[in-house]
Amino acid sequence: MAGDGSDQRALQYEQTLMYGRYTQELGVYAKEEAARLRESGQRRSVSDRSRALDLLEYDKGRCAKCRICTVRCQKFLISRVGEDWIFLILLGLLMALVSWVVDFCIAICLQAQKWMYGGLDSNVFLQYLAWVTYPVVLITFSAGFTQILAPQAVGSGIPEMKTILRGVVLKEYLTFKTFVAKVIGLTCALGSGMPLGKEGPFVHIASLCAALLSRFMSLFGGIYENESRNIEMLAAACAVGVGCCFAAPIGGVLFSIEVTSTFFAVRNYWRGFFAATFSAFIFRVLAVWNRDEETITALFKTRFRLDFPFDLQELPAFAVIGIASGFGGALFVYLNRLIVQFIRKQKAINRFLMKKRLLYPALVTLLVSTLTFPPGFGQFMAGKLTQKESLVTLLDNRTWAKQGIAEEFDYIGHSQAWKHPQVNVFVTLVLFIVMKFWMSALATTIPVPCGAFMPVFVIGAAFGRLVGESMAAWFPDGIHTDGTIYPIVPGGYAVVGAAALSGAVTHTVSTAVIVFELTGQISHILPVMIAVILANAVAQSLQPSLYDSIIRIKKLPYLPELGWGHHEKYNIRVEDIMVRDVRYITLNCCYRDLHNVLLTGQLKTLALVESAESMILLGSIERAQIQSLLSQQLGRARRLEYIRERAAAEKKRLSVISNPGSEDDSQRVSQEVRFQISTEESSFSPTRPIPQKPLKPALKRASVVERPTEIPTNSQDNSGIALKNLFCASPDTEGLEDDGDMEDDMTIREIAEWEEQQLDEQVNFNNCKIDPAPFQLVERTSLHKTHTIFSLLGLDHAYVTSIGRLIGVVSLKELRKAIEGSVTVKGVKVRPPLASFRDSGTSSSENEATELHKLWDRHKSMSLPREHTPSESDEKSQ
Amino acid sequence: MAGDGSDQRALQYEQTLMYGRYTQELGVYAKEEAARLRESGQRRSVSDRSRALDLLEYDKGRCAKCRICTVRCQKFLISRVGEDWIFLILLGLLMALVSWVVDFCIAICLQAQKWMYGGLDSNVFLQYLAWVTYPVVLITFSAGFTQILAPQAVGSGIPEMKTILRGVVLKEYLTFKTFVAKVIGLTCALGSGMPLGKEGPFVHIASLCAALLSRFMSLFGGIYENESRNIEMLAAACAVGVGCCFAAPIGGVLFSIEVTSTFFAVRNYWRGFFAATFSAFIFRVLAVWNRDEETITALFKTRFRLDFPFDLQELPAFAVIGIASGFGGALFVYLNRLIVQFIRKQKAINRFLMKKRLLYPALVTLLVSTLTFPPGFGQFMAGKLTQKESLVTLLDNRTWAKQGIAEEFDYIGHSQAWKHPQVNVFVTLVLFIVMKFWMSALATTIPVPCGAFMPVFVIGAAFGRLVGESMAAWFPDGIHTDGTIYPIVPGGYAVVGAAALSGAVTHTVSTAVIVFELTGQISHILPVMIAVILANAVAQSLQPSLYDSIIRIKKLPYLPELGWGHHEKYNIRVEDIMVRDVRYITLNCCYRDLHNVLLTGQLKTLALVESAESMILLGSIERAQIQSLLSQQLGRARRLEYIRERAAAEKKRLSVISNPGSEDDSQRVSQEVRFQISTEESSFSPTRPIPQKPLKPALKRASVVERPTEIPTNSQDNSGIALKNLFCASPDTEGLEDDGDMEDDMTIREIAEWEEQQLDEQVNFNNCKIDPAPFQLVERTSLHKTHTIFSLLGLDHAYVTSIGRLIGVVSLKELRKAIEGSVTVKGVKVRPPLASFRDSGTSSSENEATELHKLWDRHKSMSLPREHTPSESDEKSQ
Fold it and tell me: What SS3 class is residue B250?
């Protein structure tokens, strides 16, 4: 935008001005500057709008009325476009369309496969070839396409969304490329007929949609640039994703909350409901318009009887389904992780697969589709049916096996696939469950966009059906004894099983609601709820959820949940888990201290304390800020300056020899020089400098500058490059230094000396971005509360303070360890009293100091110019 | 418990020891002490258990095997009793029983009324008397009983639970008395047949149950004393309350979340589901066991057709219901508040009602029951039916008005009540809606335990029915045009209306889920969702929810929600709303400063800063702590001590006159005295004392002592009483002072002088409970984020700091104002630059100082002993 550019220029101009005006208090200036920027930002958006209106008037030169009307409409639309509900409606509409189109394409793909398979029924071998080649090609294309366009689109997406909603920024996960890759990859993957789901990817796709829509809408209004709003919209998008996938708005909202959030803002609730309802509505309306349905109904409608859905005495059977599903769910998660880890560990396989990335998907697809080949083994496991068809048959109202004999029920439609002339229905069901179980666990490891919810759901339904059919065979006339006969409905068991197994795998309770919305019946609410809760209880005590398991496999930053029976966590306190040996910077430290601190710490931020004795926490500074401070101090620009000054001094000395008595003049010269280029107040005097600054003025001067990019920019161009490199994470200053050595007449020895001097100067924090209120905990905060606060606020670390004094730091790592129990915190460790802590604190810092010294000495022996070291060491430590 | 007592003694002994060991650093000591206490607490609970086992073995001396078995069982049970699920099962069971018993009693009450009314059908006047007297007696009893036993039981209870879950402690709201009052009061109130609900009170009753159960269970295990656990259990209890009231576990959980929480911990989710499901299950099983039902089904089962529940073209009608319900809901809330405010404002009425507290309920009941008298006006509004009966008829499957003529449908059961020979069904429905609307709004203001959910639900159902019947009359053969005729189902409209109106009044979306669970059918999911969302959108933009409205009426501490379209809140920052003129205490202030600060501030806590110049925030101190510090300094014990010392000095002076040169001795004497009784390090030297303490040692000495009760306890008994009084919130030191004047030989003038001296001493914060890490915000934190943090962490206030410097404070009040818009914060105010702020800051503190001076001077002129003033002024300011 043109407005942006001119503003940028103005900003740069003012920055130059700022560095010139070194006499003014920079803190005050920065604040004023920020206020001015904010104002100008507002003005800019206003002027943008009016410009758009002007353009409109130029474009359309027809009749005045029409123009005025258009302008008014535009104005109204633009003023309304900022409202949440417009955004949510657009999101819902978009996602419903995407969901419907994807479903449509998948249906066409599957029909094509069936058609090919059916047309070649003269030759079994050709049939097999068609049956196998088709999915292999589709999956390979999907894997290749995703790999090339956006590898981030691989997999479910729910683990990533969970991480993003925790506040972690994952690069490239919310781009247009990923969107395209995910949608096309998913369509192909599901079109292949492999046991994969669309639910997880749809959560990701909806979030992508929301992020892109938000970026698009930010062309009109200002609020779309707000980060916390975007996070809220992403949470709503997750609900939309599930909602439009299953046409289940309530279940979608709840499932997305359970799966992605740790703490949920109730004010977000209506957003999710609104968008998901709208999306589900449009999704189903599209089906009505397409003449697939007569009116809006559930996706997998069941027709169980309403008057007596189940007997009270059937409840034990439902409970059994729940408990068994719990074990099954844990097994599924374990199996899935085992496969991934096995492939990773086997280096030979791994190397081979890395070379031929598409071979693994192809092989897995080949295996799975060979086994489901209907004339082959597939005949014993209803291999002919697609996922949707098998689910429909499993939820069927009728009983398949009266008295255990399969022949008795009348086959219509797809239900015939479950019948085998020689084999019992029970055997078919058991084979289906066992085969699909490992197939699904294997298939979800393929690097294509895919979820595991739907396959697990189908397996659960099959398991429930199995139990239901057994019950029906056991009690052919139902259990109820008074008068009327109410036969057992195996379909109801299938519903319960589906909810229980999918609940166990994902560790959610809301699968119950999804099941009600999918089937359109809520009559089995109590059995479903009981089974789901039991399944969750069992699964949660055995394994993490599938999504948490993937998060751990992918090593995303996460915080484990406090699950069932975490009550012992109430007794652990922060002081038991905190790191007492905190890296800190004092307000009046010298650059050498900064350098040393950078060499050792791992945390991304460092504590700023008043002094090493008082340890009063003033704020925290990011590593990058300290790097920039150091590089500014040791940078080439400053060195060149020093050389120039030295040359001037040399010249003057010579002139003094010739004309002694003009010292006043020389002082003026050096002052001028300083005025021209110095970026800092403190001059680069080579003497060991500046007595300890008093606290108060330093504090008054210290300021918060919001944008880190503003800071390193100073008026010199050549030093700017080196700094920029430092900021862009991969410092490539070596080359720069070499090419600069031509002008530089200092020897390496001289440079080292000069740097030593520079390092002894006191740090000036004026232009440094300081977080002025980092999060603080007290030593006695319980682990439980700490977990709450960390997950509530999405913290990465928190300082432990006691009356202003910094005494420790807790990061996600320590918390994770404490919760997972790798630190053996049985009961309460007796905390060392304050005195002993103080001793240990000083001793440890002494140790640290000697270690640092060693590092520094080793470093000295190397002849490289020293200004590279901070960034290098930082890279190592990161 | 015996163990407790001995521990208490040990504690007291150690405390005496602690005050004797005044040479040791108290901070360190307090920490060691706390560690020891924690350890001993653990040991105690272990020893308690083993003692219980020992007792068992004494009691049962039968056979060895049996004993061992019992002991093992006991051990197992005790080890398990701490688990959450045991607690939740007990809670669910208890609440199901309570709910069932209450329902049973209500049913009996209502039957009794019908029986009386039916038996007296010979005489209309007697009939009227019976019809009216019965509810008047019941309601009056309920009001009187509640008033006498526990006035806290009055009303719904949801607003109070919302406040409690925010972290505010409401006294007496969770006691056994309240439980009894609520249960009996509710039963009587609902038994009267007035339009009241049981849902809100059940949330309160469940919470009461949980609190009492938790207290009971704490006899066995330790974790029941944990506060954060109790809060989590209360959240689960709210879900149980709704769940067992409607047999709606899912809806219960969601409704309780929406109504009571701002941020919801997803880890609490399973707790709510588990307990609510169990509770609903038992509740329905009890009905089966009582032969009311054949099996577990929904409470208000509907039998709408599954294949074609509604036509797509009916959706506009559903939307109309939603929007109208939104307006209706807002009107209901407004009406309810208007009635309460009218009664409050009319002083004459108010005085009269305050005198005769039971008159208002009786009058309202008389009015309502007169109007519903079936042979009177009640015949036009189905007055004969109870709430439950009218709901059943409204959700009926059949169409009442074909072609607008009421006669056509066949009346069976209660549906007959809606038929009137002369009057159309539509008129009956309209009258029912209008009359019930204001009756419900009026009835819920009666001071008995009652909710408004169910009456509103019924009104909504009636409104939906009205629209449905109109549609059925308009399209007698349904709207659908191709082939089969699908007539319109007015019952479906009633379901939609009920969900929409109750959703609008409570500002919740989950009424949709409650409706599905109540009717046992989910076929109308999309119309219901659309109507509920529209109703919410309308109602939220017009009025607060009923519960928020009650919170405001009752002036409970609350934080308004950020509702629809709050996006402009993203642009307001904390600096725009914060109070810059913070009350603070410096580390080296004197007691006079404390006194002055107490005289002026309103906040319950005061900031502790390092010094007035640096303003580094070190912590916050509660008012009560400062009061105790002051009273310790100015207390009688110290004055007596001073007198004694003065007498000793006088004696010595006399002896010095007789025997000059024994100064060393006198010093020893004063030291001994100090050793005996001084609770503080600083001696009470009458000279203006002690140069400014250096920061570091003061900080090192400062400590966190957890229990406030530990602090004031010192070895002297008489001073202990005064302090205790100060701590028990109502200081009654006046009397104490009078009775102590006998020993006191100082004149008031002398006392004043002595106090002046004391006030000039520097404060010793050693024994003061300091919150060492109060919550801090940055100036640039947005209002949106501030709201999030306040509601997440249940904060009351937060300090605004900038690099350790305290620059402002934000309390709930400012936040509330900013959100509600009474502070006109349009867009972004240009923040004053730091310099001008500093000027205004100093000038304001100067103003403040002069004001304080005035206060102090005015105060001086009063001849009262000065040590009472801080607490007095505090009482006034609170």
Answer: helix
